[in-house]
Every structure is written in C-alpha cells, then in structure tokens.
Amino acid sequence: MAQWIKTSVRFDKTMENGAIKRVTEPYLVDALSFTEAEARIIEEVTPFISGEFTVSAVKKSKVSEIFWDESGDRWYQVKAAFITINEKTGAEKRSKTVFLVQASDFKGAYDNFMQGMKGTMADFEIIGITETAIMDVFKAKLTEE
User: Fold this and answer.
1) How many CB atoms lie within 10 A of CB 109?
2) Alpha carbon of 8 to those of 23, 50, 60, 74, 112: distances in Å?
3) pTM of the entire structure?
4) Which run of H or of E encompasses 86?
C-alpha cells in the first residue's frame, strides 16, 4: 500500500510577465519515510527548476488512494464517507476517506472517481470535491535488484 507524503518546494519562478516571484509548490510523493520523500522530490524537480530551491515542508498526507487519468492536468480531492451499519445496535457509522483524482475539470473528477469506485461493494456518499494546488504526483520507483 502506498504511503503518500506531501512535500513543498520553494523556488524563484519566472512569471508570464517576466517578473521573478518566490513561490512554494506542493507535490505528492509515494515514499516509505520523510527522508526518502525529500530525496525523491529533489530528484524529480531538479531538471525542471533553474537556480536554487529548498524543500520547505514534508508531511504525511491523508490521501488513501489515487485515481489516475493521464489526460487530466489538475488534481482534485474527493472526500467520501463509507457507510456501515452496526449489526448489534443498528446504528449507521460513517468513516471518511480522502481520494485524489486526476482530471481536466470538476465533472471529469466526478466521473473518474465514480469509474474508480465501480467495483466497490460498500455504500458510500461523496462529501465534497475540491481542486487542490498539488502540481504533480510521483509514484514509487520500483527497481529490480
């Protein structure tokens, strides 16, 4: 199971009008530790950032699963509540889960989420869908040794 760690990279970015602005961009990395996440994000962003940069934050993410769509250019957070019923008391229990969905727009995020949940036997309801600031998501690099 993937452990998604959110990292923030701070650097000087040239804006469309030519001005240089200090920005912080968030990324998600599949890593086993904070140290590995920091090393991976440095490796991933180095070719794309000219000049100096720093990894300003590394923290655990609440994302439990990601639904990919290579045609999408944005990342949406989908909060869903899974509904279970206690057989002894008959009471409903809702456990909230956070998903990340890649899509081009809000409707695409909804459609991709529903497609990803197609085989799910559990009852669930969508609590919310919001666009995130996440720039990119990096899967684990699996190597054969």
Assistant:
1) 26
2) 10, 16, 12, 17, 26
3) 0.90
4) none
